[in-house]
Amino acid sequence: MYTLYGTARSGSAAIEMALKACGVEYRICTASSWQKESHLEELRQINPLVQIPTLILADGSELTESAAILIYLGMEYPASGLLSQDAAVRAQQLRGLVYIAANCYASVGIIDYPERWLPDGTEDHNTQLAQGTVQKLYQQWDSFSDVFFGSKAWQPAHPGGLEMLAAVVTRWSQAREHLRLSRPGFCLSLTEAEKHPAIRDVIENHWSPERP
After folding, report:
1. Cα-based distances in Å from 69 to 43, 82, 156, 171
2. How many Cα atoms sit within 13 Å of 170 on the Cβ side?
3. Which of 6, 114, 158, 202 could in theory staple to 52 by disulfide, Cβ–Cβ 3.0 to 4.6 A?
4. How does strand 26-30 pair with strand 62-64?
5. 0.90 cut: is pTM over it?
6. How big is the chain by its Cα radius of gyration, in Å?
7. Omega into 53 within 30° of 0, i.e. cis?
8. What domains appear along the chain, each with residue ranges and CATH number?
9. DSSP output for the chain
10. Are 203 and 163 in contact (CB under 8 A)?
11. pLDDT in tens, the chain (212 residues)
């Protein structure tokens, strides 16, 4: 049994997709730094950085960082399809997962919380930082599309960990809206990947209009 700490519309959605693809039992503990009524203190004891997703493994150890969790699950459950069995293709999938985590995921953190990066900055400084990072984020997604879309590593008809993480992170900071104009083929492939049951069910749950 796995325990996943996360919340709606966060990076934990990608891990939930992966757990479904693996066909394993798991439970979800709602927790985030912006939800004071969640399992926040419980998460803090496990992960002092209060990061989500945090996954508690069957042996009780904890695993953080979305890309690391997806890679772990792909290695632990090779039949899940999270990672390719072809070494060359898998290498590019790992490259893509780390790219999203190091570039796109990181940029969203600056956009959402610019004051963490400019603690002594004025409101105008923080706004400028956030706006500039949004444009950088869009460039990063364009570059991702140019490298991975159409390659053997990108398989929207049989989505794995790379497609799952991209499906979630492109929903932040209006990146999907940007991609509809800048990289329409890549954007359509994300929609195709989201038809997979493991992805579709999580998307419908996390991004349901009924959710607050």
Report:
1. 17, 11, 20, 20
2. 27
3. 6
4. unpaired
5. yes
6. 17
7. yes
8. 2-81 (3.40.30.10), 87-202 (1.20.1050)
9. -EEEEE-TTSTHHHHHHHHHHHT--EEEEE-BTTBTTSSHHHHHHH-TT--S-EEE-TTS-EEESHHHHHHHHHHH-GGG-SS-SSHHHHHHHHHHHHHIIIIIIHHHHHHH-GGGT-TT--HHHHHHHHHHHHHHHHHHHHHHHHHHTTSTT--TTS--HHHHHHHHHTTSTTHHHHHHHH-HHHHHHHHHHTTSHHHHHHHHHHT-TT--
10. no
11. 999 999 989 999 999 999 999 999 999 999 877 766 668 888 889 988 888 999 999 999 999 999 999 999 999 999 999 999 999 999 999 999 999 999 999 999 999 999 999 999 999 999 999 999 999 999 999 999 999 999 999 999 999 999 999 999 999 999 999 999 999 999 999 999 999 999 999 999 999 765 55
Q: Which single residue is written with the structure tokens 């004025």?
A: 122
Q: 100 is written with which tokens?
A: 């999203």
Structure token pair of residue 103: 């570039």
Residue 10 one-letter amino acid? S
